[in-house]
Predict the 3D structure of the following.
Amino acid sequence: MAATLAKYPHIGKVVPAMGYSPAQVSDLEATLNAVPADVIVVGTPTDLTLVMHHLNKPAVLVTYGIAPKEQGAPQLREALQNFMGALVPARA
């Protein structure tokens, strides 16, 4: 955890969930238990409370999604294709 926080200092007070090996989960759980917070907000694609059984504070899973843009705006697929096309030259 210390190495991850040192590598990504811009995240501020966010505790990153990096990897899901038993050792990494244990390290993350110990870190979350040591944080002086009223609640843990879990914003990962998977519900970490399913693998962390000894948290000492409540945890809330938040979800997120992508809302469609207004009519006529580029859709996500088109926007990603344009973005990736600018990064990766087309194959001949």
About this structure: Residues 22-34 form the longest helix (13 residues). The chain has three helices and two strands. The two ends are 44 Å apart (CA to CA).
